[in-house]
Hints:
The chain is mostly helical and 53 residues long. 87% of the residues lie in helices and 0% in strands. It is rod-shaped, with a radius of gyration of 23 Å. The termini are far apart. The model has no long low-confidence stretch (mean pLDDT 76).
Amino acid sequence: MRVLIHPSLAVRRPARAASRHVGAVMSRYVAPLGFTLAAVWVAVLFFLASATH
């Protein structure tokens, strides 16, 4: 059995949970993208360094 204390509190909770969820999803996808871009950049630097010699 659920007891609803105040209707406005029930409306606000999903908004905060949704914003936290969006942040979690964004960080889950942005962090690997950053690592991938860093790895590609390192590979490009190695390629350029080996091409000049």
